[in-house]
Amino acid sequence: MFVSRYLSLLLSVCALSMLVHGCGFQLRGSDLGELNLDYRITGNLSGGGADATSVEFLQLLRQSLKQSDAREVSTGNVLIEITSLRRQEIDGAVNAQVRVAEKSIVFALLYRVVDVAGRDIVADQRLEVERVYRIDRNNLLASNSEQKLLETELLRNLAGQVVRGLGVVMSKQPALAEPAG
């Protein structure tokens, strides 16, 4: 009885591991990582009046697109229109002295993607990321550094979400993924 129970448990674990391994094989073949397209970025973030956060986001977005084999050109076949990037800092929990002990950073991005004819590839989208961090009143310099690192990570996350979403859409529209000639 002990042997049959042990054997059935062992077979169940083997079956589960084969199932997980098989799923991983299918996911590796989906190839959503390569965009292979020409793009251009426009919107409220570019230009001389852009703040440091917007400039940092544009750099991270361009970096993510470049890692996905996309090329930025002046006459790209895909136009990424950034409508707005909003940063919000929200006070969270307070400590016993009624001082803010936690803060929340929220970034909201509004964008859309169109082709050269002006047709929507990705209609107006809103992406939002949020992270809560603790404030150490005994080491404000470190808290400030942590906040800057979290902001960069949130912006990198937003840029990655845009690129992954574009990869999914472009995999379904292969004619647009061809570089402009």
Domains, number: 2
Query: What's the β-strand tally?
Result: 5
Rg for CA atoms: 23 Å
Q: Which CATH class of the largest domain?
A: Alpha Beta
Order of helices and strands: HEHEEEEHH
- The DSSP helix count reads 4
Reported by name, the CATH topology of the largest domain is: Double Stranded RNA Binding Domain
Mean pLDDT: 79
Explain how this protein is built.
The protein has 181 residues and is of the alpha/beta class. It has two domains: 1-30; 32-177, Double Stranded RNA Binding Domain (2-Layer Sandwich). The protein has four helices and five strands. It has helices at 2-28, 52-67, 140-172, 174-177, and strands at residues 38-43, 71-72, 78-91, 102-115, 120-134. Strands 2-1-3-4-5 form a five-stranded mixed sheet, with helices on one face. A hairpin with a 4-residue loop joins strand 4 (102-115) and strand 5. Helix 2 (52-67) packs across helix 3. It starts with a helix and ends with a helix. 17% of the residues are buried. Mean pLDDT is 79; it is low at 25-32.
